[in-house]
Amino acid sequence: MTVTDAPRGTHDEAAEPAGRRVAGGRRSSNGAPRSAAQATQGRSTSTRVIEHLAEIAGGRCSVDDAMIEAEPAPEVQEILVGLLMLFETLSYNEAVRKGLMRELEQSRADERQARLKAERAATTQARFLANMSHEIRTPLNGVLGMLELLQASPVTDEQRVSLGIAQRSGEHLLAVLNDILDLSKLDANQLNFKRERVDLHQLVRDVCEQFAPRAASRSVEVRAALPDTLPRWWTGDSLRVRQVLANLVANATKFTEQGSVTVSVRGVEGGDGPWARGLRVEVQDTGPGVAPALHGVLFDRFTQADASMTRKHGGTGLGLAISRELARGMGGELSLAGGSTSGACFVLELPMDVAPDELVEVAAPPESLPTRPPLRRFAVRALLVEDNLVNQLVAKQMLELLGCAVDVAADGRQGLERVSQGAYDVVFMDCQMPHMDGFVCTERIRAAGYRQLPVVALTALHGDEDAGRCRAAGMDEHLAKPVSVVDFQRVLRALVPHLERAAPSPER
Questions:
Q1: Sheet strands (E) in 214-371
Q2: Residues paired with residue 199 on neighbouring β-strands, in sequence order
Q3: Contact indicator for 484, 372 with CB cutoff of 8 Å
Q4: Residues 320, 447: one domain?
Q5: Which one in 323, 373, 416, 485 has a CA-CA gap of 20 to 30 Å to 122?
Q6: Same domain, 246 and 275
Q7: pLDDT tens, 387-441?
């Protein structure tokens, strides 16, 4: 072993192989020599270890400012080279790990930002749709309401036909609006499904009755085929079952030029009893059917099987897509059976349960579907709180058609003042108004001691959460615009049945 003095600045690094250069010749950036401590300052421990191992493996090592030269034995040199490679690998892995950790932290930060951005976008979209719903439903309430009032007045047959066309056009516009709102709620996972008692017999008949008159004008019969053993009461979401069934029947009557549309109900096969696994509802028509090649896209959004039928009958291509998602949201399934020449048969399977203590009843469907019941009359003094002049006129005339005496307040402040001054039997309250909205007005009515006064929300807010907000404010019922005379009659019969007169209201 040789010990030599190695003053800084005299060591010939150029003559040394790159892999065997030692640390003693390091210099600072201005050319001044650096000590070992200065040379290693700022570098990681693994880097310093690797440098020292490289020096030892090359037979050189600096201690303080003295250079020790000694050629290690081959075995030692092999071990030192192995250690050198190990430490280089560990150093590389550590650098990779730190890089991955930085990328992971950045990815998490990006994910948080993306989630916040998506939440803000969803909130903005929900607010926009709610505002659009209100802005569209409010004038649509005026259009449909006036059309209904006109049809109840003395008109010629030709005028009645024209009014019917206008009424159906408005109803179609409302259906499109509802589809778009439902689609948005499905995307946002905001639809809630209830478990309540459902009168299945009445639900099926109501849906058939809804579409029977229009289908009859084209000589198409809409009928319900309910088995004698079908229980009457079930547990499920009445609103969503009705929505899906109505969509299927509407499609069937739209595409059937002649023949019939039949709604049949039976139990899902399997289980301990005929109704143990739920319901199977089939909507069969005698129309042209759907070609097998189109079955795969029939339930896609914004898709309709036949463009020529779209031009003839209209539609957004959302109805079946929404119906299937609603069926799946209730734990069921909606599918298509049948070929292209024997009509279309849509099958809705739902895992509904027979309501507790339900006895099997005979369906006994009537020979013909009932017509709209005659309007009743009510000895009621009603307060209408509504800021829109058109909706004031529509609601006032509809209530007067039912025999009610109606006072009008233009906003919540006036409504609260009217309640304190007069004796009213019921209040119909718009929710979105200037100065004081319907929610605050109702809360103050209740706080003032009017606990038993029925308050009915009359609003363009139509979602389940909106109905819940109305109930939380103290309202007894929720009517979503556009409303009809029948809607007012139903609410009055439920809230003030003691004020119903014996004689029905004469049709004008």
A1: 220-225, 233-236, 259-267, 279-285, 333-337, 345-350, 353-354
A2: 233
A3: no
A4: no
A5: 323
A6: yes
A7: 988 889 999 999 999 999 999 999 999 999 999 988 899 999 998 888 899 999 9
pTM: 0.53
Both 50 and 139 in a single domain?
Answer: no
**Do 210 and 340 fall within a single domain?**
yes
C-alpha closest to that of 236 among 140, 405, 354, 326: 354
CB-neighbour burial class of residue 101 (10 A; exposed 0-12, middle 13-18, buried 19+): exposed
Collect all residues with Cβ–Cβ distance below 8 Å to 86 and sequence separation of at least 6.
none
- Looking at 316, 338, 354, the residue that finishes a domain is 354
| Exposure string for 454-469, b = 16+ CB within 10 A, e = fewer | bbbbbbbbbbeebbeb
Torsion of CA 499, 501, 506, 508, to 10 degrees: -20
Report helix, strand or coil for 342.
coil
Which pLDDT tens digit goes with each residue over 279-311?
899 999 988 877 776 767 777 765 555 544 444
Query: For a pLDDT cut of 70, what percent of the chain falls above it?
Result: 72
* Contact assessment for residue 160 and residue 151, using Cβ atoms and an 8 Å cutoff: yes
Place of tokens 């005339």: 397
Structure-block tokens of residue 319:
């109805």
Same structural domain, 238 and 273: yes
**Residue at a domain's end among 285, 319, 354:** 354
- Among 362, 366, 370, 346, which residue's Cα sits nearest to residue 227? 362
Cα distance between the two ends of the chain: 124
List the CATH number of the domain containing 199.
3.30.565.10
Residues 495 and 385 in one domain: yes
Tell whether 40 is covered by a domain. yes
Sequence-separated (6 or more) residues with CB below 8 Å from residue 210: 246, 249
Q: Is residue 359 in some structural domain?
A: no
Q: Cβ(49)–Cβ(40) under 8 Å?
A: no
Share of the chain above pLDDT 90, in %: 21
Residue 335 belongs to domain spanning: 195-354
Alpha carbon distance 267, 270 (integer Å): 9
Write the DSSP string, 360-414: P------SS---PPPPP-B--EEEEE---HHHHHHHHHHHHHTT-EEEEESSHHH
Q: Is residue 408 part of a domain?
A: yes
Q: Is residue 200 part of a domain?
A: yes
Which of these, 225, 223, 242, lies nearest to 234 by C-alpha position?
242
Q: Are residues 314 and 180 in the same domain?
A: no
Residue 86 pLDDT greater than 90, yes or no: no
Three-class secondary structure of residue 457 per DSSP: strand
How many domains are there within the chain?
A: 4
Residue 45, classed as helix, strand or coil, is helix
